Amino acid sequence: MSSLAVNALHKKRKSYTWFYFLFPSIAIMLVFFIYPILLTFFYSFTNLALTGESAKELKFIGLDNYIHMFKDPAVKVSIWNTLIFLFGSAVIGQQVLGFIIALLMKHKKRAFRRVIGTIVLAGWVTPEIVCALCLYSFFGDEGTLNSILAFLGIQEVTWLYTVPMLTIILANIWHGTAFSMLVFQAALDDVPSEIEEAAVVDGASRWQVLSRIIIPYIKDTITTNMMLVTLQTLGVFGLIYAMTGGGPGNSTTTLPIFMYNQAFVNYQLGYGTAISLLLLVIGIVLSLFYVRSMK
């Protein structure tokens, strides 16, 4: 074999070297991510169920699950509850509160930042179910908050019954704000202090420094954090289910709760998978919106 042929064979083998290194990752993605999505997509067009006549024989029913889903008034309520929970706890709550905490900690001493950071991180590192039980004890009829109100001579409130959506929003804010705080803290530390000092010397107020220098400088970080927090909040299940179970009534039934009830309480897995795809589509749309806004 000539030297040219040997070199050509060697280059050909070298061109496929990347595949050997990436094959384990590709295989894992196919088995644990792509395949479940395709299987879920297929089951959403079937009558898959755990009990009853439908459980005996799997049948392809076309768009029946989707037609039923868009006609079901409970789905509309769940979508609305999901958007309220998403906007209140992610967009307004975690994003804004995390930014404010990070901004207040900017230029503070390291000891102060460690103490405040540890307090805020306590809610984030706490498992979701433990966090739900703690907040349930706080907002319960005989919980900590009502005990404080009674001590102050204020009328007690049945928080989990009167304002259940507010309670789960506050619980999720307490649980997830630390992530936004850490992201913004790292971004704010990268803002050149010389620019801020020059703006102050030129007569800029604190609000002008914040709105015209700091926020524009970290706008990409704000958008990225918003996308991550939104997708994380969109799939919150354990916190809501442990605190309210989606009630009272369906006042806190978000799409993950509704999907769980249809799939594992009513045993209609086909209908439940159709709802899960609706949740997936909402996440994709929001992600595309954030990615487009970054450009």
How would you portray this structure in words?
- By secondary structure, the protein is an all-alpha fold.
- The chain has one domain (73-294): MetI-like fold (Orthogonal Bundle), CATH 1.10.3720.10.
- Helix content is 77%, strand content 0%.
- The chain contains 15 helices and no strands.
- The protein has helices spanning 3-15, 17-43, 64-71, 73-105, 110-125, 128-139, 144-151, 159-162, 164-189, 193-201, 206-217, 219-234, 238-243, 255-265, 269-294.
- The longest helix is centred in the first third of the chain and has 33 residues, at 73-105.
- The N and C termini lie far apart (53 Å).
- It is a multi-pass membrane protein.
- Residues 80-290 form the ABC transmembrane type-1 domain.
- This is Multiple sugar transport system permease protein.
Q: Looking at the chains present, what oligomeric state does this protein adopt? A: single chain
Strand content: under 5%
- What portion of residues is helical? over 70%
Main sheet properties: none
The averaged pLDDT comes out at 86
Instruction: Provide the CATH topology.
Output: MetI-like fold
- Poorly predicted runs: none
Determine the number of helices (DSSP H or I, runs of at least 4 residues): 15
Please tell me the total number of domains: 1
Judging by the overall fold, what is the CATH architecture? Orthogonal Bundle
Separation of termini? 53 Å
**Which radius of gyration do the C-alpha atoms yield?**
25 Å
Family: Belongs to the binding-protein-dependent transport system permease family.
Keywords: Cell membrane, Membrane, Sugar transport, Transmembrane, Transmembrane helix, Transport
Membrane topology: Multi-pass membrane protein
Organism: Paenibacillus sediminis
